[in-house]
Design goal:
Number of strands: 4
Helix content: 25-40%
Strand order of the largest sheet: 1-2
Length: 89
């Protein structure tokens, strides 16, 4: 039931471990990467993004882990089909 709820959310949802390795994602994340969850698990942002972008994401993740506080940022994302969407994660 929880999985059904998570998959019905249009926002990208990722679960990463403390080392930034993807453990799970929702359907919106599958559409974003153009890959099923099974092909994302075990990978990091460095497998999906240019090194400078992956490093920025990793630094942001580490800041959140260190502070233990919620963080919000806004960004445009471009999906594999070329469409774009404004996200507020």
């Amino acid at each position: 039931m929880l999985r059904c709820i998570i998959d019905s959310i249009g926002d990208l949802i990722f679960i990463k471990d403390m080392n930034g390795v993807y453990q799970a994602c929702n359907k919106a994340a599958e559409e974003f990467f153009g890959l099923p969850e099974s092909e994302q698990i075990g990978k990091t942002d460095f497998d999906f993004f240019e090194p400078d972008i992956a490093e920025t994401i990793r630094e942001h993740d580490q800041q959140i882990l260190a502070s233990g506080k919620e963080s919000r940022f806004e960004e445009w994302v471009t999906y594999q089909d070329g469409s774009s969407n404004f996200l507020i994660p």
